[in-house]
Specification:
- There is one protein chain.
- This protein has a two-stranded parallel sheet with strand order 1-2.
- Helix content is 53%, strand content 8%.
- The protein is mainly α.
- The chain is elongated, with a radius of gyration of 17 Å.
- It has a domain at 17-84.
- It is built from six helices and two strands, in the order βαααααβα.
- It has helices at residues 17-31, 39-46, 51-62, 69-84, 91-102, 115-126; strands at residues 3-8, 105-110.
- Helix 4 packs parallel to helix 6 (115-126).
Amino acid sequence: MNNLVIFDLDGVLIDSREMHYEALNSALSAVGEQYVINKEEHLSVYDGLPTSRKLAMLTERKGLPVELHNTIWENKQKATLEIFSHLEHDYELMHYFQQLKNKGYQIAVASNSIRNTVKLVLLPHLTHSVFFLRSHIQRHSV
């Protein structure tokens, strides 16, 4: 029998909500302060949506030029990586995962983050070589 435990990364293993908000606003402010999302807008309209959907909505609501979407998306990813690079190791979580692994469990992580963010930044801060990861998100989420 195979045993698998699946954890949600965003909001369960790490509290990334504010980090994603800050990263997107950093990228938006670089092209124009008028596109920055205030906290109230974020919580009532944009929170939890993929970046590509947020950008499409900003085009509809605030006139964000479509030709800036790729630049903003790429800059948001860079800002996200920078923010996540300052995460501290969670040794308690690492110990917990190691216990599960020692008992024969496979561990998977679900995330709305792009694969590179999960692989290059988040996993090293949580544990080493414990995760079994499958992600279909490569570039833009729809």
